[in-house]
Amino acid sequence: ILLLIRNPKDVATSFYHFSNGMPPLPSYETWDDFFVAFMTKKMPWGCYFEYLSKWNKYADDENVMTITYEELKENPVLGVKNIAAFLGISLTEKELQSVVERSSFQSMKKNSQKTHGAFGNILFRKGGISDWKSLFSEDQNEKMDKAFEEHIGGTKLGTKLKYEVYCKA
């Protein structure tokens, strides 16, 4: 099992834009309204912190590889090499480069109309890291940090996210 996790602040930011662009989902007039819903567990797919907490139980399982979105953005070649090794797949240098290029956000966004039709632009918006800084107030940032610490701060997944997000930023 490949478990891809992401900075909860960027998860919230992406889901805010996704929700507002996807008609079947609830939309929010303001970021503040969305933030309250996100923090009070009123998301259609539940609470991201609870999701991470549940997966943390399996973080040491030899059949589970955890990787962060941030790791893949920072060094996609190393990320693909590690994933391939975990899955027992050997790649030539040419295959490795092909996978890296074809799985890049830019490539997936470019092909999104073919692969995902009308939802392509909704699913593939920016693909960046730290976009949360454009929406979060100082108070919201502090609330998210507190919730992070309370739910997953000392766990293996929490430590991995904290390192990738806060120590490398």
Could you walk me through the main structural features you see in this protein, from its secondary elements to its overall organization?
The chain is mainly alpha-helical and 169 residues long. It has a single domain, classed as Rossmann fold (3-Layer(aba) Sandwich). It contains eleven helices and two strands, in the order βαααβαααααααα. It has a two-stranded parallel ribbon. α3 runs parallel beside α10, α5 (76-87) crosses α6 and α10 (138-152) runs antiparallel to α11 (156-167).
Compact overview of the structure:
This is Sulfotransferase. This protein is mainly alpha-helical.
Largest sheet: 2 strands, parallel
Known CATH architecture: 3-Layer(aba) Sandwich
Helix content: 55-70%
- The third-level CATH topology is Rossmann fold
CATH-level-4 superfamily name: P-loop containing nucleotide triphosphate hydrolases
Shape call? globular
**Class per helix and strand makeup:** mainly alpha
Rounded radius of gyration (Å)? 17 Å
Give me the count of strands.
2
> What's the CATH class, please?
Alpha Beta
Q: pLDDT average, as an integer?
A: 90
Query: Which regions have little confidence, pLDDT < 50, spanning 5+ residues?
Result: none
Put simply, the count of helices is: 11
**Number of separate domains:** 1
Neighbour order of strands in the largest sheet: 1-2
- The succession of helices and strands, N to C, reads EHHHEHHHHHHHH
**Proportion of residues in β-strands:** under 5%
